[in-house]
Design a protein that fits this description.
This protein is mainly beta. The chain contains one helix and eleven strands; from the N terminus they run αβββββββββββ. The protein has a six-stranded antiparallel β-sheet, with no helix packed on it. Strand 7 and strand 8 form a beta hairpin. It is globular and about 35 Å long.
């Protein structure tokens, strides 16, 4: 008889715990849990005036991390990459590029300064405008990237990988 009461509160707690973990923190964003490498769906794709927010913490000894906006999730053949942002710590570069029909374009790397610091939080915002993306880091505009994929609404997936932890997406 004694085992039953001991078992039942435990079960209740477990049920409560799993529901808390399973529910998203922000109601407005339908992203899965923020595990790296991460792949999430951008509802309705991109459009002028739409902004993607990525908040995270750089790892202690980072080599690089990347944020991609792609047209779908396909790996094979690879989905078109509207923009890939790659922070390379060894070279203190924040490079961006796109891949259309399997062909990578011209890489751009000019930045006024390198904004990421190991073991520190960051906030990247990708603002979609009619001719370009504008990239902000911690509230400062860092660079523009002109669209190489014209159909903005097709850009419906965000992929994040590398040496970082994600804390929030929006």
């Amino acid at each position: 008889g004694a085992s039953a009461p001991a078992f039942s509160p435990q079960k209740l707690e477990d049920g409560h715990l799993s529901s808390a973990l399973g529910s998203p923190l922000q109601g407005d964003v339908c992203f899965p849990r923020l595990i790296v490498p991460f792949c999430g769906h951008i509802k309705g794709g991109m459009r002028p005036g739409k902004k993607i927010l990525v908040m995270g913490i750089v790892d202690l000894n980072p080599e690089s991390f990347g944020i991609r906006l792609t047209c779908g999730e396909s790996e094979d053949p690879p989905a078109d990459v509207a923009i890939e942002l790659k922070a390379v710590f060894t070279e203190r570069q924040f490079v961006r590029n796109s891949c259309v029909a399997g062909e990578w374009g011209e890489e751009q790397s000019s930045i006024p300064y390198f904004p990421f610091i190991p073991d520190q939080p960051f906030r990247v915002e990708i603002l979609c405008e009619h001719p370009r993306f504008r990239i902000f880091v911690d509230g400062h505009q860092l660079f523009d990237f002109y669209h190489r994929i014209e159909t903005l609404s097709a850009i419906d997936t965000i992929k994040i990988n590398g040496d970082l932890q994600l804390t929030k997406l929006g």
